Amino acid sequence: MAEERTVKIPQHRHCRKCGKAFVGEGLYCSDSCRDSDGKEAKRKLYRYIAAIAVLWAVVIVAVAVAGF
Q1: pLDDT tens string for the chain (68 positions)?
Q2: What are phi and psi of 22, to 5 degrees?
Q3: Residue 22, class by beta-carbon neighbours within 10 Å (0-12 exposed, 13-18 middle, 19+ buried)?
């Protein structure tokens, strides 16, 4: 039987943004991944706030029209 060789890889992490494997500390492989992930999180937060504001506006209009 042929001897199987296994290649051991060093301990590593995967970038939270792009998924690339890297050795080191933190959640991101580079500053650009960290920055772009932060911008994306802010954009999602602003969309969520806008959606809540629109829903409240619809509720207020509905209550005003219904006369409660």
Answers
A1: 567 788 887 889 999 999 999 998 999 999 999 999 999 999 999 999 999 999 999 999 999 999 86
A2: -150, 155
A3: middle
pTM confidence score: 0.60
* DSSP annotation of 21: E
| Residue found under tokens 């960290």 | 34
What tokens appear for 43 in the block? 């954009």
Kindly provide the residue ranges of all beta strands, DSSP E only, lying in 2-53, ordered along the sequence.
13-14, 21-22
Residues linked to residue 21 through DSSP beta bridges, in sequence order:
14
Amino acid occupying residue 5: R
